[in-house]
Amino acid sequence: MPADPDARLPDTLLADAARRLARGVRVSTVPPAERDRAIALIDEATAILGREESPGPYWLTGLSSFDQFDLNADLATVHTYSPALGDANPFAPVADLEVTEDKVVQGTVTFAEVHNGPPWNTCHGGVVALFYDDIVGLAAMVGAGGGMTANLSIDYRRPTPLFEPIRFKAWMEWHEDRKHLARGEMYLGDELLTEAKGLFIRPKGFPPGVTTG
After folding, report:
1. In 33-147, which ranges are E strands?
2. Closest CA to 139 of 185, 207, 193
3. Cα–Cα distance between 63 and 141 in angstroms, integer?
4. How does pLDDT run across 134-185, given as a tens digit for each residue?
5. What is the DSSP secondary structure assignment for residue 4, as one 8-state letter?
6. Residue of 67, 68, 128, 158 with fewest CB within 10 Å of its CB?
7. Which residues lie below 8 Å from residue 29, measured CB to CB, with a gap of 6+?
8. Residue 10 class from Cβ within 10 Å (0-12 exposed, 13-18 middle, 19+ buried)?
9. What is the model's pTM?
């Protein structure tokens, strides 16, 4: 990911602003009059953004055709609009990730107030599962082409805290023809928080041009 914020895509800058807005909505205790003013400003911004809209189809890559898709592209372009780890999706937590030479997907993710679940300052288990779906699926994709999620199971061993950099890794365990099994883990420091296992199946002829690895 580019280190210089000015070098990032405009969509990413917009998403960062929306993340700050979402946090403000979640934590604000300002009086009703100030909330009404904020609502008016949000409605104004929504109207500006609505002047030109993409007709779709919508894909988390931001692409509209498989002809534009490159399996070896920078990961930041593969999941641009993903609700789990997309730079341009304001609902996604902030994450940094890379693929190692042995095709392990690894990095850190920090969950915020908008991702909280019970009891206090912990990440919602469903959000953890959503994040796993992307990183474990990504491991299957870079490992041998990947596919659609057929099954995803999570073992929750410890609560996942908010505001802390959570270390993760995911790797493909095996694949056979169109079937891929991948696993993942998340840690706080050296403490194992959760584990995941995902089965991914690539539909026949999908995506075009991708063959069994």
Report:
1. 94-99, 105-110, 116-117, 122-123
2. 185
3. 17
4. 999 999 988 887 889 999 999 999 999 999 999 999 999 998 888 999 999 9
5. S
6. 67
7. none
8. exposed
9. 0.86
